[in-house]
Amino acid sequence: DWAPTSDPKALLVGNYVHSYFESKEVHEAFKEENKSKMFSSRKPYGLLKDFQIAEQMIERLKQEEVFMNIYQGEKETIVTGELFGTTWKGKIDCLNVDDEYFVDIKTTKDMHERKWNENYGSRET
């Protein structure tokens, strides 16, 4: 049986960034709900390094005028439909129905990291 391999901290970092752009209230609630996983319980107290990097991601996106201009619409919209005979359900980060587009924020550890792909017997990005 297939089992997904994921890093729970990486998912939290992504959700941290997403929650910021959803709304201040959602972001504060997210931080409160996950504070034991995000903040150091020992000196020096404060955000753990991964979440400090998430803060840098947020600050960088806020500085991008194009991003701020296009990230307008309904946040975290659930959509359903059928594709190729299969029912699907998804969540769109920002859906702008009036202008007919959506935006999906992606966070990544390293855009340039290359990993070995067993299926193809080669390194890939």
UniProtKB/TrEMBL annotation:
<dbReference type="Pfam" id="PF12684">
    <property type="entry name" value="DUF3799"/>
</dbReference>
<keyword id="KW-0547">Nucleotide-binding</keyword>
<dbReference type="GO" id="GO:0004386">
    <property type="term" value="F:helicase activity"/>
</dbReference>
<keyword id="KW-0378">Hydrolase</keyword>
<keyword id="KW-0347">Helicase</keyword>
<dbReference type="InterPro" id="IPR011604">
    <property type="entry name" value="PDDEXK-like_dom_sf"/>
</dbReference>
<protein>
    <submittedName>
        <fullName>PD-(D/E)XK nuclease-like domain-containing protein</fullName>
    </submittedName>
</protein>
<dbReference type="InterPro" id="IPR024432">
    <property type="entry name" value="Put_RecE_PDDEXK-like_dom"/>
</dbReference>
<dbReference type="GO" id="GO:0005524">
    <property type="term" value="F:ATP binding"/>
</dbReference>
<keyword id="KW-0067">ATP-binding</keyword>
<feature type="domain" description="Putative exodeoxyribonuclease 8 PDDEXK-like">
    <location>
        <begin position="2"/>
        <end position="123"/>
    </location>
</feature>
